[in-house]
Please model this.
Amino acid sequence: MNIELSVKEDAALKAMAQERDMSEVAVMRQALRLYQLVHERLKAGETFSFSGDAGRAAEFAGLSQTDCIHCRGTGRYGGMYGPAGQPLCAECNGTGKNG
Model:
């Protein structure tokens, strides 16, 4: 199997492998096992969250540009979060009204 990674993803993979003294394949296998565990537990109705502020978790997960929970727009993250930590867009800042 071949996998094409972005430059950023490739650099992260190499750094993680070096930090853990593992091969890149071993890091990917470990990541897959972790993803499987999270996926199965979510399917079973459990919840998953990061400790710390919602902004750090959203940034880590790549949610800086997503559907706003209020206006459903796809504007850039506006620095605000909804009740479950979802990013709100800069267009409505949580009001649900663009413009």
